[in-house]
Amino acid sequence: MGLRHLARRGAGTATRVRAGLPGGLVTRRRGRGTEPDDVRPFAEGDDVRHIDRNVTARTGSLHVRTHHEERDRAVVLVADFRPSMLVGTRRALRSVAAAEALVLLGWRIVGDGGRVGLCVAAPEPAALPPAGGGRGMAALCQALARAHESALLGPPDPDPPLGPVLERARALLPAGGHLVLASALDAPGEGFAEVLAVLAERIAVSLILVSDPFERAAPPGLYPYATPDGRRGTARPAKEPAKGPAKGPAKARPAPEERVAPYTRLGVATLRVDSEMGPEGVAPLMERLDAVL
Fold it and tell me: Contact at 8 Å (CB) between 90 and 49?
């Protein structure tokens, strides 16, 4: 709730409206539409049915009326609170950074008259249909906080697949909606790419990749680890050459850009958020993402 003031910074007033229902936000789309937009001189190829008789009679030359279509701007935010997201080495957990980015984006959307819904990948999944205004965002923030608290108290089980979560989020969206997923994509699960490819053909999908500084450049040294099945040991970062015996896995992690590369080829818009940046640094990135939703 405290991030609301950051979302207001730099928000323009050109598209700000009071209503989030259909007709509350007007944007240009293909086709004739229903809302009158402008009157211009007739050009070759124009439909004669669009001729404005009044302007034509007044000016003595053919003029046509153009239109645009109004639509309901609805976005469903998908937060990844699975066990792999509950880790962080600087400032905040990756799950917290994901929630901050989504909330900043949500406040911007409702501030411009849109509606925001929520779907959380957590031991106790949460789902909220798109709603507008401050009440809608208050309910969303409360659902995020409760889902994150339950995730922290849950057992460190392996990550469930993200595909079913995306399908549940898609069921909340009306036609023409937008889906925004915030995740580190450590283990998206089997079938995730296929589900994302199907969704990208039907709706607009954006991906916020959350990254921790340790995974991008781990300081050299030996690190203790423990796995959910009870194994313990020490491991050296994979990029550091081994100088002695070290027990445990040393598998190199793909870089953030490599993790999202297969999805950008599907037409999914991607944006990286570093967990150490903080809300002040993330707010301009969400303003840029909001501009393309």
Answer: no
CA torsion angle 285 287 292 293 (round to 10): 110
Which of 139, 259, 247, 266 lies closest to 208, judged by CA?
A: 259
DSSP symbols for 101-142: HHHHHHHHHHHTT-EEEEEEESSS-EEEEEEEHHHHHHHHHH
Residue with tokens 């850009």: 257
Q: What is the pLDDT of residue 205?
A: 93
Q: What is the pLDDT of residue 253?
A: 67
DSSP string over 226-266: E-TTS-EEEE--TTSPP-S---S--PPPPPHHHHHHHHHTT
Angle value at C-alpha 59, between 58 and 60, nearest 5 degrees: 100
> Mind listing the pLDDT tens digit for each residue in 179-236?
999 999 988 999 999 999 999 888 999 999 999 998 888 888 888 888 777 889 998 8
What is the identity of the amino acid at 289?
A: L
The β-bridge partners of 126 are: 120
Contact, 44 vs 62, CB < 8 A? no
Edge to edge, the sheet with strand 126-132 lists 126-132, 115-121, 74-80, 178-183, 204-211, 269-274
pLDDT computed for residue 102 by the predictor: 97
- The parts of the chain modelled with pLDDT lower than 70 are 8-37, 67-72, 238-253
